[in-house]
Amino acid sequence: MLALEMPRARRLLAYLAARGWLARVRRGMYITVPLEATEPSQWREDPWIVATAAFSPCYMAGLSACEHWGLTDQIFRDVFVTTAKRVQRRRLEIQGTSFRLKVLPEAKLFGTRSVWRARVRVQVSDPSRTVVDLLDEPRLGGGIRHVAEVLLAYFEGEHRDDARLVEYASRLDNRTVFKRLGYLIETLDVDAPRVLAACLERQSSGASPLDPSVHTKGRFLRRWNLRVNVEIVPQAGPG
After folding, report:
1. Which residues of the chain fall short of a pLDDT of 50?
2. What does the pLDDT read at residue 26?
């Protein structure tokens, strides 16, 4: 650690950044530029590493996690991050990458896996937590129709874990997740009787929207206490 007064430290950081030795992540935060970078001024760090430096404690979530686990074929420009850090804005740009942030208490940053990105270990939601997060907030999955596609890929793929899915939904403590999950299991004709039974048992009372980001009222489905404001058309999964 250098024992420098704050004004001198700021000048030194600005000097190093101007000459390409450091890259500015956000105000007061810099990361080193690799010596092998051929054009230091144009160099950009891996966005997952940037997110870890800027928003820790955090994990990569939503559509970013879906891409990582192969739960979607779509490619998204934004990086989705769940963080326990207080942030002023929920969407911001760093080094040309758009970050979309969700804030949760640190105790709810569970269900993650460590993965290596170059030289840095970062956290990403595991497949079950990824699905639960999308059911909790469908806009993080591009809307409930795309969430339905992700859910189908999850149940038909190698990452399926029914017990863990129910456990995570319970720990998140948003019983609307069980409404959306149960409704989608039935609509998509997924064979998951134990999950379906848990959803029927643990769903909350009162009407909830299937997709909160859609402002139409929709029909009310009493079985799941849902306002079905988006129609989900059953379709075959991958393969």
Report:
1. 1, 13, 15-16, 18-19, 21, 33, 35-43, 237-239
2. 55
Task: Tell me if 158 is assigned to some domain.
Answer: yes
- Helical H runs in 19-161? 47-55, 62-69, 127-136, 144-156
The answer on 113 and 148 residing in a single domain is no
Residue 131 within a domain? no
- Cβ contact 72:66 at 8 Å: yes
* Contact in structure between 210 and 145 (CB atoms under 8 Å): no
Q: Where are the alpha helices (DSSP H) in the chain?
A: 6-18, 47-55, 62-69, 127-136, 144-156, 162-172, 176-187, 193-202
Give the rounded percent of residues in the chain with a pLDDT score beyond 70: 79
User: Tell me: the pLDDT tens digits for 64-82?
Assistant: 999 999 999 988 889 999 9
Amino acid at 143: G
The amino acid sitting at 216 is T
Structure tokens at 165: 């899915």
Q: Put the strands of the sheet holding 120-125 in their side by side order.
A: 91-94, 97-103, 79-83, 58-60, 120-125, 112-117
d(CA 183, CA 226): 8
Residue 196 lies in a domain: yes
Q: What pTM does this model have?
A: 0.81
Residue 54 and residue 74 in one domain = yes
Distance of alpha carbon 26 from alpha carbon 93, whole angstroms:
9
Domain hosting residue 68, numbered range:
47-125
